[in-house]
Amino acid sequence: MFRNNYDNDAITFSPQGRIFQIEYASEAVKQGSVTVGLCSKTHVVLVALKRNAEDLSSYQKKIINVDTHLGLSLAGLASDARVLSNFMKRQALASKMTYGRPIPIERIVDQIGDRAQANTQNYSNRPYGVGLLVAGVDDTGPHLFEFQPSGMTQEMVACAIGARSQMARTYLERNLDAFADSGREELVTHGLKALKESLNQDKELTIENASVGVVGVSKTESGKNKLEAFKLYDGEEMAPLLERALAGEGVKAQGGEEAQVESMDTS
Question: Kindly report the CA angle at 151 between 234 and 230, in degrees rounded to 5?
Answer without folding.
Answer: 25
